Amino acid sequence: MIEKINEAKDFISTVTNNQNIDTMIILGSGMSGFEDNYEPLDQLNYSEIPNFLTPSIEGHAGKLSLVLINDKLTAILSGRAHYYEGYPIQELVIPIRTFTLLGVKNLILTNAAGGISDKYVPGDIISITDHINLTGDNPLIGKNLDTFGPRFPDMSEVYSKNFLKLAEKVAKNHFEFKTGVYAWFTGPSYETPAEVQYAKNIGADLVGMSTVPEAIVAKHAGMEISAFSLVTNLAAGISKNPLNHKEVVEIADQSKQKLQGFMKEFLFELNSDN
Ligand code: HPA
């Protein structure tokens, strides 16, 4: 695995001339296009980067853009591969580990999620405060890669309290600040109403099919992390209607501008602090 990560790192280093990259952003469903807010220094398709998986899902472009945000070199990854696409979990997190070796300290994740909390309506943007891994899998299973972090990493603050404070401040200019706990299911089937009730009973406010493997590996490597969910639908059984992917994509499209406006300001501010 370390060879695969090094190969990807060496490839990207030649493009960046070994410049340090401070922050990486992974754009989830419906967020592709955010990179167009910036003048790219370079753009690469994941298919050109050794060992990066190409997402097969619509709305996940599979493109890396290197941009300057407030003068700091930032990697925007538009689209991700998901666990339900059948890839080994350790391969899903190659981008996180590659950028760890390229100097990245800050990780910003976005996703589409189903809302459980009665405080949410579709179109809301939620700042994730913690997660529950309901899949039974973990990207750190296997030989520990000591270069990145310890065998038994602490997970008591996966989502940075400092970044949450910044999100609250920036959200004032964009939408009502709401927080929640994200439960990770494998997908690709949506949850049953009973599964959603179970997630609710154990403290989840959102359900989704991504983000957690990336957050675990980034935390293992000591990154400071923020994650934002766009509520595209009320979760199964909370909504009286059956779920369909088309609706999820439509709501994501409608709310994209709001999330992008927030993200632009959040990233600018983040790069002023560090
Ligand atoms: N469940 C899981 N993932 C999702 C959902 C959902 O209801 N909506 C968008 N992504």
What would your notes on this structure say?
The structure is a single chain. This protein is 31% helix and 23% strand. By secondary structure, it is of the alpha/beta class. It has a single domain (2-273), classed as Nucleoside phosphorylase domain (Rossmann fold), CATH 3.40.50.1580. It has a five-stranded mixed β-barrel with strand order 5-8-7-6-9, surrounded by four helices. It is globular and about 55 Å long. The mean pLDDT is 94. It binds hypoxanthine. Hypoxanthine (HPA) binds at residues 112-114, 190-191, 207-209, 232-233, 235, 243, 248.
Brief write-up:
By secondary structure, the chain is of the alpha/beta class.
Tell me the layout of helices and strands.
Layout: H1 2-16, E1 23-27, E2 42-45, E3 63-69, E4 72-78, H2 89-92, H3 94-101, E5 106-115, E6 125-133, H4 161-171, E7 178-184, H5 193-201, E8 206-208, H6 212-220, E9 224-234, H7 245-273
Parallel strand pairs: 1-4, 1-5, 5-9, 6-7, 7-8
Antiparallel strand pairs: 2-3, 3-4, 5-8, 6-9
Helix pairs in contact: 1-3, 4-7
Bound molecules: hypoxanthine (HPA).
The site of hypoxanthine (HPA) has 13 residues, from strand 5, strand 8 and strand 9.
What key phrases describe this protein's structure?
274 residues, alpha/beta, Rossmann fold, five-stranded mixed β-barrel, 9 strands, 23% strand, globular, binds hypoxanthine
